[in-house]
């Protein structure tokens, strides 16, 4: 091991090193005097030693310590030490009895560009403390298993002063907040600014009247109605489905423009990236509305799964995130179209999590070491974490799952828990042994599930084999406990054996079905019952049959997906594609019994990155140009073959009347736009131009703009869109992203470079930086252009952002996570960029960890 790597390994935190904090923290008193350059924070911690003679360690970064006292006595310089990461009060200076510790520190919110801790956005004060931002506000045991009651006063010039819990006193320039629920520091929040509220109320099932406010900048108040209604729906759903009630008299949501992530579940004071709150038909798309509803629900649901029951340490992050994603997905599935939601989730899982699992960044849902926890807010922790909860639900059934969750809330309310606690609850509620299931949490990698069939004398047998490739640091992979939902269909599509859950626990395992008159058609892994890659030799005819007849909507879609993928893989290698996909889609387009949203999903071709992965999985080195050409060719072929039907669909799916984001009209628009996307390849953008000029909502306007960008004839449309929306930051983000993600690949890198010169490219705002960079990285053939221009450009910008906002720079570096998939030339170029990043002096811990892991 190199000296560098050794140093990094020792800088890692390890799950096995966990030790409880040696002090109990009863209460916290915080007093803020806000000032952009010199905010003063006084903290009083009521502590009691759990063991004698232990020194007191408090985390603290970038703080100027003004004073430090214990039980009112100022400490002398030899009684404590301060270093770059915190403060230690030596054991000799500590009373053996409970004591209070007072600190006074100075911080500069205006200079905080990393957006962790207390920072400013458009003149408003705002905090982000998860995971370890609180230590940039005051000296504190900043770890999730230290929970305390917070009492907060805020003095400042802003008219609105907010924190967690209930407001107990208020006058001009002053507010006092008391949170009765013990919480870890990462759930602390403070907001101060000139804000206006869109308000409402909700009465809980036991009759508590809760005041609801969505706080925004002046001028944004007419874009809050949807979020407020979504919040009420979430509160009701959590009562109905999980029996969980809200526990304070007030629930505040604040929208902020500068935010590193989507949103944050601080107790009673959720803070949101304004992108995921503000919506109006003119500025938000159908997809935005659905996401807003889902994220509002996600943050609200955290009140129980995350806040009331939190994580013992950050290794357990998927305990709160996997479960909360599972809950928000179920909420959306219940309110909208369940099967469509499931398909969308699986598309996203494969695009983000499978991709992660197959590359150098693969890690288990519960990692056992890290250098920078911010780098572990990943698709594996969130989305795969949710899949694991879904599998537990499948294994236990509805009643068993509900019993386990009831037990979880009963047993662990008020605690900081582990994955072991979580699985024990499921074992106790069901009487089952889940020790093998636990491997899903501790092992990285996507299992490949191979299946073969046999039919003889009325007995049908499925032979399964599971295998997981080695991942970084985990060479051997023992078999996992996999729930495989299977149904068998007869020759006319009738269900011979309805959905049953087969439980696979061995490396190879067979399951038989007796008494069948003829060989059935199997429908395997219905509803995507486990996050695995299924491999099965299956004819195009059989897939077409499943696409037409499967009673499981997920597998119906999956059959079409498989046909499309096979066709694209063939075309990308210069072979002919089986016409089965194009033929089968003809019937589906015309099938009025199928939901429009479902049909729209079936018409959507796999993304180029997914095709690249598919080729890689089959042992073929992906060629980005050939993939792009293949996808274009298949789309064109589809459009040609079904031109009349698609044209009819385009007309029939127009939604008259005023816009609503409801699933019915949104599904029709999705189908209409899917048809237009194909027709656009034939009419040179004529229909898209007409739609762009007449659209009355952002869904159609943005889609039409994207289609025009695709044709290359986009100059006029881009200019007119820009002049209309110049003053709207959220819409302008869309303008940046669409012209890069959808443009002909050969233009992408140069266009991205030109856009960085645009005065609207305010790169220190995370949303704007992400829009441009994710737009480029999302253009698969453009990002992977042979000359390496996009690689260099992208790496340059990561290096520029890193000193300003390391968290976002590190997160965006995942654009390189697939580098080992490609040909030697591209690999060498990406490797060189990653090495250049890794070598850079003064690199943040965030980006440095990512560069090292990416290089493997
Ligand atoms: N817990 C939030 C996501 C979040 C995580 C980290 C952040 O800063 C590093 C901010 C937000 C959620 O799951 O919604
Ligand atoms: Zn979350």
UniProtKB/TrEMBL annotation:
EC assignment: 3.4.11.2
Regions that span the bilayer: none
All copies of domain Peptidase M1 alanyl aminopeptidase C-terminal, residue ranges: 541-855
Classification via CDD domains: M1_APN (cd09600)
Peptidase M1 alanyl aminopeptidase Ig-like fold domain residues: 445-536
GO MF: alanyl aminopeptidase activity; metallopeptidase activity; zinc ion binding
Co-factor requirement: Zn(2+)
Catalytic activity of the protein: Release of an N-terminal amino acid, Xaa-|-Yaa- from a peptide, amide or arylamide. Xaa is preferably Ala, but may be most amino acids including Pro (slow action). When a terminal hydrophobic residue is followed by a prolyl residue, the two may be released as an intact Xaa-Pro dipeptide
Domain Peptidase M1 membrane alanine aminopeptidase: from-to ranges: 226-440
Positions in coiled-coil regions: none
Domain of life, source organism: Bacteria
EC class: hydrolase
Keywords per UniProt: Aminopeptidase, Hydrolase, Metal-binding, Metalloprotease, Protease, Zinc
Matching SUPFAM superfamilies: Leukotriene A4 hydrolase N-terminal domain, Metalloproteases ('zincins'), catalytic domain
InterPro entries recorded: Aminopeptidase_N-like_N, Aminopeptidase_N-like_N_sf, PepN_Ig-like_sf, Peptidase_M1, Peptidase_M1_dom, Peptidase_M1_pepN, Peptidase_M1_pepN_C, Peptidase_M1_pepN_C_sf
Domain Aminopeptidase N-like N-terminal as annotated: residue spans: 38-186
UniProt KW Zinc keyword: yes
Biological process per Gene Ontology, one example term: proteolysis
Family: Belongs to the peptidase M1 family.
Name of the protein described by the UniProt record: Aminopeptidase N
Organism (species): Thioclava atlantica
